[in-house]
Structures are given as C-alpha cells and as structure tokens.
Design a protein that fits this description.
This protein is of the alpha/beta class and 555 residues long. It is globular. It starts with a helix and ends with a strand. The mean pLDDT is 94.
Length: 555
C-alpha cells in the first residue's frame, strides 16, 4: 500500500495558472512561487461581493484512533467538484512542530490531499518564517528600549511578550536572557512560544487586509509599566516594520488537491491555544471566487468550531451554510473505553458508551449555534453495518443524517454521499445562526457560557490570579472582547482523561491574558502549554531526502 507522500508524488499536478483559471483569477492577480504555488493579490479582489456557500468541517474530540478532519475536508471539496459545483477549499498551513513531532504532515491523507504536500508541510511560501521574524523583531525592540533607558517605564517583571520559533522545543519554554554584562542587555526571565501560538499568527489570520493587519499589530500588548498601564507595540514604534515583514504573508496561498480542486492554504493557529482557523483573507477570497467553500476548524467542535463561530464569524461577518461533524467508529469506541489495539472488533456496547461525545457536538452545532449539520463517518473497512446503523439511529434523534465518507481510499468519488447531503441541507436553508454568548456580557459570564453550553460543565472556578486579571482587563476597556478558551483538545472537560461526554465537572481557569491585536481575551485552563515538546520517538526520525531531492517519511 502506498504512503500518503508516495500517493502525492505519483500524481501529476496541473500548473497553478490552470487552477487559477477555474476561479477566474488572472495572472496579474497572482504572484508565482514556482509552477504549483501562487499568492493571490487580495487588494485586487476587495470590491468583489461574496457569493459562495460556506461549509464548516469540524469533528469529535481527537483520539489516538484518528478522525480524518482534513482528509474529509479535501475529499468533500473534490466530491462537490465532481457534482459540478465550482468549489474552493480553505485550509490552515501545517506547523513544523507537529510535522516533526507526533502528528506528522497535515495536508490530508490517502487520495484526498492538497499538493505539493512536501512544500505545504515544510517551508511552503515562507509565511510562518515571516511571522516568526515579525514576532522576534518586536521582542528585540522591546528589550532594546529597556536597554537604551526605558523611557516608557516598562516593568521587566511584567513583560508578557515572548519570542517564538516554529518547532517543538521544550528547552525554550522558560529561559533567562540578557546575561554577560551591561552591554549584553538587561537580564530577565523570558520564554518561547511555538510560532502558531504567537499573537501575530492570530492577528494575520483575523486581519482583513494589510492596513487592518498593521492597525492590529499596533494594538498588541507587550507588557505593563510600573504605573500599571499597558505597553503597546505602537508605543515601541514597531508595528510598521512588522507589517512590512508581513506584507506578502497576508496574501492567501493557492494550491490544488490531487483532483485539481483549487485550495487556499493560509495561516495556522492552533485551536487549543488560539482560535484554530485559517485566515479571514483566504476564506473571504474563496467566497468571492467560488460557489461553495469548504473550510475546517481545528481539533473538536468544542474548540475549533466554537472559536470559528464565536470569534472568526463575528469578526468577519461570516455565517456557515452547513456544518460537517467528522467521526470514526473506532474513535467512538475508544471514547467508550476500548483499548486502541481492540478497536477493529465489533463492540456495540462500547460504541453506545462513546456516542455521547459525538452527540454533544451535534447538539452544540444544531441547538446552541442553530446551524444545519451532517455527521460524516470516516469509514474503515472493519466498521460493521450494525455499528453504522447504531450511529444513524442516535443521530436521527437530533434530526441529523449520517453520511459515509470513503475519501481516503477513493478521493472525491468516496465523498459523493456526503457531498449530496451537504448540498441538500444547504438547499433547505433551515439554519438560524446564533452565538454562544454576547459581547456585552462580563468576561466571566462569557467564559461560563462556553463552559456550560459547549463543554457541559456545571460551572467555572477562577483562580484568584485569573479573577484579578479579569477585573483589571475590564477596567482597561478589554471586557467587550470575545473569549478564546485554551483547553485540552482530548476532552470536553479540562481533564484529558475524561472521555465521552463527562458530567458533574467544573472548568478551572488558571490564567487570563489579553490578545488585543487579535481582538480576544485568552482564558487558560488545565495544563495548556504554548510551547510543545517532542515525543520519545519524533516523526523527524523517519523523514529523509535522497540525492535527487526526493523526500520520504513525511507522512
């Protein structure tokens, strides 16, 4: 059986100009990055109206058994193309951290991939490098300001801005820098985030254009003065130079699927520590150029989809026309307590125990957010008819149909059932979109609304530090911002060991911080880290390149 990378390398790509033609994009509106990649000039498309229908793909909470959300997104887009619909895919760019760490590549899988997958999974068009450079320029200017006399009166013990690198490197989580003498900087505690956790990544993904990007960069809080006033990037006169570094990075990247459906792959914030969606500029551009746009939100619907709907849709004026919730029989049985090694055996009792996880996500999408949904079962050959019938029966109680997806092995052909169901619920137009909270609510009430409505918690416990910071942020005028919850992706609760749909728990908020440029307040729960570490056996050990430049082992 061929690996994902072997499948991708065996497929003949079309020149990117041919892909652009499908969207009506001229050569003057593109900047070519070789034969198979291009950036689009969004300024030339600013006046165009949105015409497309927006389809959000989300999933149950991730498990070691896998769900296949990106693969399903790619396959659905190809299926819609096969059904004669002018379709565009809008995905995030992979981070090098997961690529070299546990997860491996993130460009889909099997016969449902975006290509060139090696480029997309590695340096691509340099967007992440530009974000890292802008982030670290701000850090350098901040420390230089302190070294040169600290005119703003910045309290070095209250600096909130960290440096970043797009790699899993636990050694950099907590560091001391500025050592070596008076001319080597001011010694202080510091640390690194992974680039996808940088606020600049969130800013780039929520900005509508370059000027909006520069304005957002200027609003970012980097620390506080001795008088307890926030210090902004614009106070350091850094936002113009950062915007200059990002002037190309904000342009969406055009590539293609294995079946030559256009795909905009742009931006990549994590959904457990950021808002977990691709860029507004890419989604907006896709909606202007195509009749149907398939996009995804990271991790489970409790994280990525909630933030897509409560943060991104609110900021960009978007309303999904349909939502796809991806699950596998194997993952649901894992939620029901079956060991990973035994997931291939039929076990209706375990499946029934695990189904509440899926049904809670269905309830959130249809009842809390008021959106029409379909459950996509990413089918494995071991799945039995009885198991599939049980899922259909339980979902029917919520008025939601189940469609089988076999896109991993069959590409777009394996997604036709799903594609037809998505088109049906879009044509019905029964959605009545609502947010899970309102912006004029106090921050604690917004956090509590998410915890109780979306996670199923009984309430929220705030640490004294978190309560104090919430009060201070509200006094500084940040209380009307939406909330970005930082929580484990493995459970609806903040405890990764509680699978299914746990009951009788509280969410604990340990820390709160403002991301004023991105335009949200982050509430950190559990043991969330903004710099992951590598596993005992990193995926990087399997990756290699030969004398001809052919990469192997990427996924």
């Amino acid at each position: 059986m061929m690996t994902d990378i072997e499948i991708a390398q065996s497929t003949q790509m079309q020149p990117i100009s041919a892909i652009a033609d499908k969207l009506g994009v001229s050569e003057e509106q593109m900047e070519l990055y070789g034969r198979y990649k291009a950036k689009l000039d969004i300024t030339a498309m600013r006046s165009m109206p949105r015409k497309g229908k927006l389809i959000l793909v989300t999933a149950i909470n991730p498990t070691p058994a896998g769900e296949g959300k990106t693969t399903t997104s790619v396959g659905l887009a190809d299926a819609l193309s096969k059904l004669g619909k002018k379709t565009c895919l809008a995905l995030r760019e992979p981070s090098l951290g997961p690529v070299f760490g546990v997860k491996g590549g993130a460009a889909g899988g099997g016969w449902a991939q975006v290509v060139p997958m090696e480029d997309i999974n590695l340096h691509f068009t340099g967007d992440f490098h530009a974000i890292g450079a802008a982030n670290n320029l701000l850090a350098a200017m901040l420390d230089n300001h302190i070294q040169q006399g600290n005119e703003l009166g910045i309290d070095i013990k209250r600096i909130t801005w960290k440096r970043c690198v797009d790699m899993n490197d636990r050694q950099l989580r907590n560091i001391v820098n500025g050592l070596g003498g008076r001319m080597q900087g001011v010694p202080r505690e510091d640390g690194f985030d992974i680039t996808v956790a940088s606020e600049i990544m969130a800013v780039l993904c929520l900005a509508s254009d370059l000027m909006d990007l520069k304005e957002r960069l200027g609003r970012m809080v980097v620390g506080y003065t001795f008088e307890d006033k926030p210090v902004l990037a614009r106070d350091l006169k850094a936002h113009g130079a950062m915007a200059a570094l990002l002037k190309d990075a904000i342009k969406p990247n055009l590539v293609q699927t294995l079946e030559h459906t256009p795909a905009l792959v742009h931006g990549g914030p994590f959904a457990n520590i950021a808002h977990g969606c691709n860029s507004v500029s890419a989604t907006d551009t896709a909606l202007k150029l195509a009749d149907y746009v398939v996009t995804e939100a990271g991790f489970g619907a409790d994280l990525g989809a909630e933030k897509f709907l409560d943060i991104k849709c609110r900021a960009a004026g978007l309303t999904p026309d349909a939502v796809v919730i991806v699950a596998t029989v194997r993952a649901l049985k894992y939620n029901g307590g079956v060991a990973k090694a035994d997931l291939g055996k039929e076990d209706l009792e375990a499946l029934e125990r695990g189904l509440p996880n899926l049904l809670k996500h269905v309830e959130n999408i249809t009842k809390v957010f008021g959106l029409p949904a379909v459950v996509a079962i990413n089918r494995f050959v071991q799945d039995t008819d009885a198991e599939l019938a049980l899922i259909r029966e339980k979902c029917a109680a919520y008025g939601v149909n189940v469609a089988l997806s076999e896109v991993w092995g069959k590409g777009g052909e394996g997604g036709l059932e799903l594609g037809r169901e998505v088109l049906r619920i879009i044509d019905e137009g029964k959605g009545s979109f609502a947010f899970s909270y309102e912006l004029d609510q106090p921050l604690k009430d917004k956090i509590t609304a998410i915890a109780t409505k979306i996670y199923g918690a009984d309430g929220v416990d705030f640490s004294s530090a978190a309560s104090k910071e919430i009060a201070r942020l509200e006094s500084l005028g940040y209380g009307s911002l939406p909330v970005c919850m930082a929580k484990t992706q493995y459970s609806l609760s903040d405890d990764p060991t509680k699978l299914g749909a746990p009951k009788g728990f509280n969410i604990t908020v340990n820390k709160v911080k403002v991301s004023a440029g991105a335009g949200f307040v982050v509430a950190l729960t559990g043991d969330i880290m903004t710099m992951p570490g590598l596993p005992k056996v990193p995926s990087a050990e399997k990756i290699d390149v030969d004398a001809d430049g052919k990469i192997t082992g990427l996924f």
